Amino acid sequence: MSISRILLGTAAAIVSIGLGGVLPVWAQDNPAFPAGRPEALQTTGVPGAPNATTTIDGRVLPNPPAPFAGRIDLNALQSTPSWAPRIVPPEGAPNILLIMTDDVGFSAPSTFGGVIPTPALDEIAQAGLRYTNFHSTALCSPTRAALITGKNHHSVGFGVVSEQSTGFPGYNSVIGPENATIGRILIENGYRTAWIGKNHNTPDFAQSPAGPFDQWPNGMGFEHYYGFQGGDTSQWQPNLFLNTTQIYPFQNNPKWNLITAMADDAIDWMNTLNDVNPKMPFFLYYVPGGTHAPHHPTPEWIDKIHAMHLFDGGWNSLRDTIFANQKRLGVIPQSADLTPWPDGLLKNWDQLGPDEKKLFIRQAEVYAAYLAYTDHEIGRVIQAVRDMGKFDNTLIIYISGDNGASAEGTPNGTPNEGLVFNGVELPVAEQMKFYDAWGTDKTYPHMAVPWAWAFDTPFKWTKQVASYFGGTRQGVAISWPKVITDKGGIRNQFAHVVDIVPTLLEVTGIPAPAVVDGVAQKPIEGTSLAYTFDKANADAPTRHHTQYFEMFGMRALWHDGWMLSTVPLNMPWNMASAAIADPATAFKWELFDINKDWTQDHDVAAQNPAKLREMQDRLWTELASHQVLPLDASVASRVVEARPGTTAGRTEFSFSGRRMVGLPRAAAPNVLNTSYVIKADIEVPAGGAEGMINTIGGRFGGYGMYLLKGKPVFVWNLLGLKEVRWEGPDVLAPGKHTIEFDFAYDGLGFATLAFNDTSGVGHGGTGTFKIDGAVVATQTMDRTIPLLLPIDESFDIGADTLTGVSADYQVPFDFTGTIDDLKITLDPPKLTAEQIAKLQAALQRSLQQVNQ
């Protein structure tokens, strides 16, 4: 048989699949899997030519390769080439700009009645629609996971933020292969994709330079990533990444700010695509860190807001102003009630002294400046879309906040958010020392709780509280001039973040995939909002009928206009409090008829016992079917939960000594609440050496081992409040030396948290500093950092990135000698049988009290 006959026979044996690809064999024979839809495919150009394009069936991703459609003979002159068509979205599919800010309450922006100017959000609302009944999950990571998957947060492993993940399916912070993101779906259908801004959906145990990177934006369908990892970061010195590489563009640039840098990057990315091919469709997921703490606007924006005197009347007066604005704008019903101020829980403005008022006004002005600044930079991105001539066919969805306004600043606010995470509240007199620096890189600030409550007007409660609209109601504006003609319209239908993905799929004409990379996909759980784009449907009944909420054991259910809610027991600003032992039974229930009570102001549970029971039963069904169980009302203990990753089960760590920077906190040895030894073998060259040997943390907490003008130093920075130092008396001579810091902890450690007991953390201990085996300094610390080092700082060897733990030096403070070896050994406290018995007994008593 000739070679040509063999070739022809092989080609004939290939199953014809057409331009749309082929379903896998198992799917072809599976009656539950529909047949392909070749008649629905759209093609352009000459088949086989370089200009050929096609849409795809889209239910199996990536699209199976089309068979070669040309002819192969013995040589090229007798053969016919053929190119597979380039995959494009359906004709008319819009560009997509999906924007979401951070920690913005419903009534903070001017668009929804607030006093803070947000002209970019106003612009989108005036060019399109304003949504008044849109909901988040009440917390950052969970909302973002639901937003990019179209599935409820527990369904995709994000029952809480990634820093608090646990080993249950609904809480492990892993968006598995069965939950392809909207970025993955769109890129496989011909879109170019980018994620610019906050990434809070990579497990903290997978954020190291060693990966794995499948849970990073680049591994979830986004070709370009420019942003930061984790819950928050300094906007002056962020832990910033370009794809999977940490970058430091802010060094030696004191006016650099991440909010502007992200807008610059977004504009550059879009313009690059436009220059290469103006018809190339894009999906830009643009999620700046404003206004999550730290509140870091530029000085110019603080001056602008200060000159407006928006907050001089205090938080009670602000609520009244906002409430009147909201009724005037029509973003709440005229019949809506303003929920009462929580007297006894938070102070009224007229109860404050002069210094308190001065400090709190400053906090609110810096926060407002941050929001106005963020919105301004978002406006630049929107203007870039206009400048490219693409505004009419770009679907812009601007979600104002990923949860309600944040109450994580304590009732007095804080100059350093890390203090709150460790259960420390500073009095006003101490905070006044930071008054002039508030908002600069010398602070990591957060405003007082009453401002957060006011920025959630007319609702009650705040971020973290999933059972009340103060925690979950977000203002949203959507424009798409080519389709949405009801300019400035208002939509009151119930909606949730899970509704965004199905909306994008409907407007692009792209189906939700059934299989991605050979893995069957979980079904989309949201409901498309596209029906609301039509003016004729302005008052149409909502199509999203049931939605559960859960966060830290607090639960709620919305169902056809009724809302079942649990009343909070732990305050959202008590971050280090012990957990509620039995969240399934501990909470009081309230019931609201939202059709008559827009703001959850009138509990009607007592008058409607049958409806209460019906809603409770329905809620438990929802919780069981979305991986919400087991309920967990812990906060602090989940921060220190053992997780998989590079540190799991290890107590000994050995590093080669090569310069290594940027290792995230979760991938580094955890020296909190334990005894430990840090030992470095170094070599000092002729002429001496200085610089950082090893550090974790920075200006707002952490330790550093370094040489300062040749002398060895070890420093503990205790959350920016106190610096404890051990110093060697002599300059190290040229040659090899061993520097060792040995700390003996005097508490029971993290192990007590397993028994819902925080008494083992934050104790003191004695540190011994040795040079070449000889003790040169011994000192006792009365207290240590109990729970959490700064989440945006890193573990560095041979240099110090971002901010320094001491004013002794300026970053990067590169070590000018040689580090031959660095070893860290942990020696966690070991509970005795008697101690365990006492802790177990105390836990049992707590459970019995709850059940009684």
From TrEMBL:
SUPFAM superfamilies: Alkaline phosphatase-like (SSF53649)
Pfam families linked to this entry: Sulfatase
GO molecular function: arylsulfatase activity
CDD domains: PAS_like
Top-level class of the enzyme under EC nomenclature: hydrolase
Domain Sulfatase N-terminal: 94-510
Keyword set, alphabetical order: Calcium, Hydrolase, Metal-binding
The EC number(s) this enzyme carries: 3.1.6.1
PROSITE patterns (alphabetical): SULFATASE_1
Domain of life from the UniProt record: Bacteria
UniProt-listed PANTHER family: ARYLSULFATASE FAMILY MEMBER (PTHR42693), BLL2667 PROTEIN (PTHR42693:SF43)
Family per similarity comment: Belongs to the sulfatase family.
Name the UniProt record assigns to this protein: Arylsulfatase
Species: Kaistia dalseonensis
